[in-house]
Specification:
14 strands; alpha/beta; elongated; disordered N terminus; six-stranded antiparallel beta sheet
């Protein structure tokens, strides 16, 4: 049974080789057997350890182990001198209630790994002995008749799964080559075969790989651009800056939130965010002084060295980094240290989508931002909704206490704008002033004057 004694291969989540590696894992008998022993511990509540022992000539080799006997991989016991060998010979499940008083067991082996009781079921595939599945305990009489029955019922299933995995591994290698070559090959035919096999065996992983390839292709072809929406100081009508927003084009013409969500789902969120930010920052030189440009980054992207480098190469003193809440923050200390490097260089920190969820308030408390952006869901119809007015007022008062500026997003009506002004909110953006547009269009058309103030 080829491949049983090779090292276990595990998939690296969200890595570009996941689809290829997952095919290897799926067809690797050792990976399958390791899952079997782990699940056996869950199935038999009193089991402390579990193993699959593979027949190799006159010996049974502990090949996959879990629990209290996890470290026994490689241990050999003679078929002729062990309970496991007897179970294979008789073709039935056997139980040793106390190894110290059972002359069927290899007592020395049992003592060396701390087994006092064990249940063993034979694994047979197409009439060929494969090995045994064993559960063990350091206590005598640890198992019950129903435990033995459960294992016996599963013996044929386990044998079939292990045997099929071996056959599938051989067939996959015949088609694609050995795992190492399979994962490194750029051959078009092999890539097509990998995609087909992955789609059949692991459709979710294959779909993820297709998503990665699509995102990589979109980045390589620059199938995206930037539009800008002005951020306005309400009382004077002056533009303090713009927010850069991404729009995808060509074959990639889908809503940006779908693109960023898809990228995040396959571990490419930071890559796409940094690429689109870099594209937007190329326009910074064309934005009039002293305007600032706001760019959106998630927590993962902010902690990436690539993001720091892209920002350092621009004009940090004219940048606002808006922390989005695509994912939860696992390590605030790392995020704070990364943000501090940016803030030391002059970058302002804004917390985006405040009011949309709990995490934005956590960001505010733990990161002390320069700017708090009121989410469109809180701004919309705030003039007619007393709950929204109460929450917005609380945010405005809190911002004033910590010396932060509030920017209301998604303002679309005069009523909303006047209500925001009542709370002392000084800055806003939204369709009431201007839709997102190219920088050239923005500079040529100016913005709407909703309060009859000369907008500059």
């Amino acid at each position: 049974m080829k491949g049983f004694l090779q090292e276990e291969v595990t998939a690296t989540p969200n890595h570009p080789e996941d689809a290829y590696r997952a095919i290897v894992d799926f067809a690797d008998p050792l990976v399958v057997m390791q899952r079997i022993v782990r699940e056996s511990l869950r199935l038999i509540a009193t089991a402390e350890g579990a193993s699959v022992e593979v027949l190799a000539g006159d010996y049974l080799v502990y090949t996959s182990c879990a629990g209290s006997i996890a470290s026994t991989v490689g241990l050999k016991v003679k078929v002729s001198d062990s309970l496991s060998g007897l179970a294979l010979k008789l073709g039935q499940a056997l139980y040793a209630e106390d190894t110290e008083a059972d002359d069927r067991v290899d007592l020395q082996a049992c003592r060396s790994i701390g087994i006092r009781s064990m249940a063993v079921v034979p694994l047979v595939r197409h009439g060929e002995d494969i090995g045994v599945l064993k559960v063990a305990s350091s206590f005598p009489a640890a198992f019950f008749p129903e435990d033995i029955e459960k294992l016996s019922c599963l013996a044929e299933f386990v044998s079939t799964v292990v045997g099929a995995a071996s056959e599938l591994e051989q067939l996959t290698e015949d088609l694609l080559g050995p795992p190492r070559r399979m994962m490194s090959s750029n051959n078009t035919k092999n890539a097509d075969l990998r995609r087909f096999i992955g789609s059949v065996l692991l459709p979710n992983v294959a779909h993820d790989e297709e998503t990665r390839e699509r995102i990589e292709r979109t980045i390589a072809r620059h199938n995206f651009g930037s539009v800008f929406q002005p951020i306005v100081q309400i009382d004077t009508g002056e533009r303090m800056g713009v927010e850069a927003l991404t729009r995808f084009s060509g074959d990639a013409a889908e809503p940006p939130d779908r693109w960023f969500a898809a990228a995040q789902s396959v571990g490419m969120g930071p890559t796409l965010e940094i690429a689109t930010m870099g594209h937007a920052l190329k326009q910074l030189i064309n934005i009039p002084q002293p305007w600032k440009m706001a760019v959106n980054l998630g927590p993962e992207a902010i902690t990436c060295k690539d993001a720091q480098t892209v920002i350092e190469r621009s004009d940090p003193q004219r940048l606002i980094v808006e922390l989005t809440e695509h994912i939860a923050v696992d390590d605030y200390s790392l995020l704070r240290s990364s943000l501090q490097l940016l803030r030391d260089s002059g970058v302002l920190l804004a917390i985006d989508d405040t009011g949309a969820g709990f995490s934005s308030f956590s960001h505010i408390v733990k990161l002390s931002p320069d700017i708090i952006k009121l989410d469109i869901g809180l701004t919309r119809s705030i003039d007619t909704d007393p709950i929204k007015r109460s929450l917005a007022g609380a945010v405005a008062r809190f911002a004033d206490d910590i010396g932060a500026c509030v920017i209301a997003e998604g303002v679309e009506s005069i009523g909303e704008l006047r209500t925001l002004m009542e709370f002392g909110i000084t800055h806003a953006q939204g369709f009431l002033f201007s839709r997102p547009q190219s920088l050239e269009e923005l500079m040529n058309t100016g913005i709407h004057d909703p309060l009859n103030v000369q907008m500059k």
